[in-house]
Amino acid sequence: xxxxxxxxxxxxxxxxxxxxxxxxxxxxxxxxxxxxxxxxxxxxxxxxxxxxxxxxxxxxxxxxxxxxxxxxxxxxxxxxxxxxxxxxxxxxxxxxxxxxxxxxxxxxxxxxxxxxxxxxxxxxxxxxxxxxxxxxxxxxxxxxxxxxxxxxxxxxxxxxxxxxxxxxxxxxxxxxxxxxxxxxxxxxxxxxxxxxxxxxxxxxxxxxxxxxxxxxxxxxxxxxxxxxxxxxxxxxxxx
Length: 239
Known about the structure:
Elements: E1 4-9, H1 13-23, E2 29-35, H2 38-48, E3 52-56, H3 64-74, E4 83-88, H4 93-102, E5 106-109, H5 114-125, H6 133-145, H7 147-154, H8 180-190, H9 195-202, H10 206-220, H11 225-235
Parallel strand pairs: 1-2, 1-3, 3-4, 4-5
């Protein structure tokens, strides 16, 4: 099985080393390059062309959004092999929408747990968008206010986020389709909790949580937890 080739562009040494160390715990992942600023990062990405670049939004010479825009412009309309996963402390509306408008494929907060980061990497590698459920509301709010603009900014490929034509009537999901326990699990998924945290909060086993998550995905016709969270928020199943 081919490995997921990842490059890291992060100016804080400890953060970069921590991410690299965590990623290398998985045999399926290979870290093929690192850079501490946008200029070095762009040159590196052109040379090594990793599958995914994890890019900090707050680089010293220019921000990760501008780096993303420059990298995507190099393709001249052709698909680049490198997908961009933005990693940041900024969860404001402008930063989120600007990142996707620039061509970012996924968006994670820096306080993300490693299991969720690994999930984000896998989802991004498979060609889908991964957004922290905690900031999914920002994208949904923009889509509701200006659907056409939001779809253009986020991109047609990101049907995991908000694509009005791919929601499969999620606005009218029957709340009774889920059990009371499944709704509790879904609420915690929306809040960004891992299976272990959900198990701890609801006083159930991780195995039981996995069963609930599987049932939720099936009932909501969702491919992953993020898509389930977005559909739940959009339909009003959870708040």
